[in-house]
User: Fold these one by one.
Assistant:
Number 1:
Amino acid sequence: MTSPRDAGLKLLREHALIAGNPVTGASRIAVDDPATGDVIGHVPDLGAAETERAITAAADAFPDWSRSDPHARAQILRDWAALVDENTDGLAALMALENGKPFAEAKGEVAYANGFLKWFAGEAERLLGETQDSPLGHLILTFRQAVGPCALITPWNFPAAMLTRKLGPAFAAGCTAVVKPASQTPFTAIALAELADRAGLPKGVLNVVTGDAATIGGVLTASPLIRKLSFTGSTPVGRKLAEQCAPTLKRVSMELGGAAPLIVFTDADLEHAAEETVKGKFRNAGQTCVCPNRVYVEALVAAEYARVLAEKVAALTVGGAFEDGVKVGPLIEDKALDKVEAHLAALKKDGAKVLTGGGRHERGGRFFQPTVTLGGDDALFREEETFGPLVPVFPFESEDEVVAKANDSPFGLASYLFTRDLDRAMRIGRRIEAGMCGVNTGLISTPVAPFGGVKQSGYGREGSVHGIDEYVDVKAVTLALK
Ligand code: NAP
C-alpha cells in the first residue's frame, strides 16, 4: 500500500506551467520540509521573460474562455473538484511536506479548498443580470462580464485554499490567470494546476510561475494586459503591490494580515470558550491570518479561563506531519521562531505569567512549545501578529474598555466573542472593527461565508455570493425599443 508521504511525492512536479507546458529554468529554488529542514524538491527560478510569456498565454486564452458557456465552465470546475477529492491524500501529504502542517489537518484544508471549486461551479451558473426600464424610455440590460486576465499571488500558510478561493471565482466568471505561489510551498499549486489540466481546463487559462517574488510581481503589476490583482499575504507587501497597480488602474483585492481579538465575558461557557480558542489558535501552529492574536477575558473569570485553556494547550501533541496524534507542527522558517520568542519575552518583561510552554520545543529545529500566558501589556499584540503558537490572555474590566482595545489596532480581519447574552453579542458584533466576527465559535472560515478584512487587513471579499463580484465588471446595454 502507498504511504501518504509517497502519495504526496507522486504529485510533486519540479516545473512551472505556461500555456499548458511544463517550464524549467537554469537556476532553481530549493523547497524544504519545515519539520526536518531536508530539501524535498526544487522549482524553477523564473524571471521577467517567463512572466511576460505567462501573461501572453493568459491574455491569448481569455477571449475564448470568457465567452465560453458558463455551464461548461461549471462542469470543468466540478470535474476538477472530483479529481481533487480523488487525490485528497496525495495533495494533503504534499502540503504537509512543504508546509509542515499535520497530515490530518492538511486533509481538512484540501476539503476546505475544494469547497471553493464546488461553490463557484454553482456561481458560474448564477451569473445573473438585471433588466430595468430607463426614464429615457429605453430598456437597460446588465451583464456581469469577466474582468480579464488576473494575477493571483498566494502565501504559504494555506497553499491550497488561498489559491482555490481565487481560482474558483476567477474561472467561474471567465477570467484567466497567472499564479505566483509562495516560494516555500509551490508544489501544492503546481499539483492543483496539473489536476485542472486533467479536468479539461483549456491551455493557457491557468499559468503558474515560480521565482523571485519582486521581479514576477513587478512584471505582473506593470502589465496592461493583467486587469486584476488578487493578493493574499502580508500588509507591507500588499501595500506595495497596490501602489504598483495604480498606474494601470487594475482592479485589486487584498487579503492581508490580522491581529484578531478574542473576547470572553463572565457569562460565557468557559470550557467551550477555551476549546474554541484552541481550535482557532493552533491550526497551522498559530500561523493563520484569522487566529486569535490577543485574548481578553473579563477579570472575574480570567484566571479560571486561562487555567482551563492552559490545560488543553499542554495536552496538544507537537511533532512531524505524519506522526500519530500530532496537532501542532513546526513553524515555516527559523525567523518565525525568533518572532514568537520576542513576543513572549515582551510579555514576560511586562509581568505576564507563563502557564504552559514558554520556549522552543525540546525537539529543536522549527518547533515551538504551545504557550499560554496571563497578564502583561497587550499593546504589541494589537500592532503585530505573532504568527505562532502563543496565546496571551489579558484581563479586562468593562465592555466599553474591551471594545476600545479590540478596535485600537491597525488591523481588522477576524474577531471572536464568547457570551451567552444575545443583546451583547449583537451590540459588539456590530461595533467591532473587523470583517468577520465569530460568536461562541473559533471557526469562521467556510466557502459560503464572506471572508475579508477592513483597515490594514485589506479590502474585497472571497468566498460566498460576494466572491465572484471581485472578478466581474457590470456591463450595461441600453436598448431603444419602438
Ligand atoms: P508575504 O511575505 O507577503 O508573501 C505572500 C506572497 O507574496 C508570496 O507568494 C510571496 O512570494 C509574495 N511576495 C513577497 N514579496 C513580493 C513582492 N515584492 N511582489 C510580489 N509578490 C511578493 O506573506 P507571507 O509571510 O507568505 O504570508 C503570511 C501573511 O499572509 C500574514 O500576514 C497573514 O496574516 C497573511 N494572510 C492573510 C490571509 C487573508 O485572507 N487575509 C490569509 C492567509 C495569510 P515569496 O514566497 O516568493 O516571497
Number 2:
Amino acid sequence: MIGFELSEDQQQLREKARAFAAEEMMPRAREFDETGAFPIDIMKSAFEKGLMNDNIPEAFGGHGHNCMDTAIITEELGAACMGITTGIMANALALTPLVLFGNDAQKEKYLRRAASELVLAAFCLTERDAGSDAASVQTTAIRDGDEYVLNGSKCFITNGGYADLFTVFAIADPKKGPRSMTALIVEKEHGVKVGDAENKMGQRASNQTELYFENVRVPAENVLIREGQGFKVAMGTLDVTRTGTAAGAVGIARRALVEAVNYAKERRQFGQPLAANQALQFRLADMAMKIEAARLLTWEAAWMADQGIRQSKQSAFSKCFAGDVAMEVTTDAVQIFGGNGYSREYPVEKLMRDAKLMQIYEGTQEIQRLVIARELLKGNVT
Ligand code: COS
C-alpha cells in the first residue's frame, strides 16, 4: 500500500518548523550571510522548540524523531536559510553514530545531556588527504591502557569551532590502516584544539574549522561498537543522514521556485508580466517537476531508513538528485530574475550560492554515483 499523505503528527511538525523558519530564520538569514556570525541564539531556540538534536531517542529524554520527521523539518528550515540549517543538521550528523551504534552507558552519558541542554557536536571524518577517499584517514588513536591517545588533524568540520562533543574517526593500528578505523566520542575537555574557520562563498552562517589532536587522551569506553568498526560506523551514519541533506536541498529549491513564481507574476516587460511568456512558464514547470521528484526520492529513502531497510542506494539517489535539483533550480531562478537575480538586494543569489554546497558535502555527487553504481553491480538493480 502506498500513501503520500503526512500523518497528523507530521503535519503539525511541518507547521511548527515552517513557523519557526518564517519567524526566526528568514528575517535574519541575510544578516548571517553577510557577517558570517554563528547563529547560536537561533540554534538555542530551535533546540527549545524540538527542532534540533531531535533524533535523540525518547528513552534518553529526547524527541525520538525518525528520518522522515527530520526530512520534514529540514526541508522547512532549508527553505529559510541553508547556512543555519547546516549547523543544525551537522549536530544530528555528529549524534547519529551514538544513536545508531552507542551502547546504553554511552547513550546515558552523552545523549541524555544533549536532550536536556543544547550540546553542540561535530562529526570529524574529513582530513586534508582524506575527503572523498574517507578510508585514507591519517589521524591515529593508539591504545594505551584504559585510554586511546589521539594525534592528527581534521578539516572542514562543521560546528568545529563551537562544539563540546566530537565524533572522531581515527586509525588504531597504522599497520592495518583503514581496517583499524575506530570511532570515538571525544569531549572538548579531552584537549581538542580548534584551528582556522573557512571563509566560504555560501552557507556563511555555518562554521567549518580545522581541528587538532595532540596527544588527546580519550577513555577506551568511548569507542563506538569496538576498535576497527569505525568505517562501518561512518558509512552507516552517512546512509541515514544523507536523506536530511537531500531534504535541505529540496527546501532551497522550493524557496527558489516560490521566489521565481512571485517575481514572474509581478515583473512586467514588453507590456505584460514575465509569467505570460510560455517559455518562462515551461521553465517554472520543469523546476516544479524536479522539486517534486527530489522530495519523493528523499521521502522514500527516509521511509526505508525508518523501516530498518538498508538504503545506501536510495539515500545516494536522494542526496545526489536533490543536490543537483537545488543547483539547477536556483540557477534558473537567478536567470528569471535577470539582472536583479545577480543583485544581493534579491534573495535568489544567496540561494544559488548556498545550493552549490549541496553538491559537495556529505559525499560529493560523484561519490553518490559511485555508491549507486557499486550497489547496481552488486545486483541491487531493481
Ligand atoms: N554501510 C555499512 N558498511 C559499508 C557501507 C555502508 N553504507 N559502505 C561500505 N561499507 C563497508 C564495506 O562493506 C566494506 O566492508 P568489508 O571490507 O568488510 O567488505 C568496507 O566498508 C569498505 O568499503 P569500500 O570498499 O566500499 O570502501 P572504499 O574505501 O572503496 O570507499 C566510499 C567507499 C567511496 C563510498 C567512501 O569512502 C565514502 O563514502 N566517501 C565519501 C565520504 C564522505 O561522504 N565524506 C563527507 C564528509 S562527512 S560530512
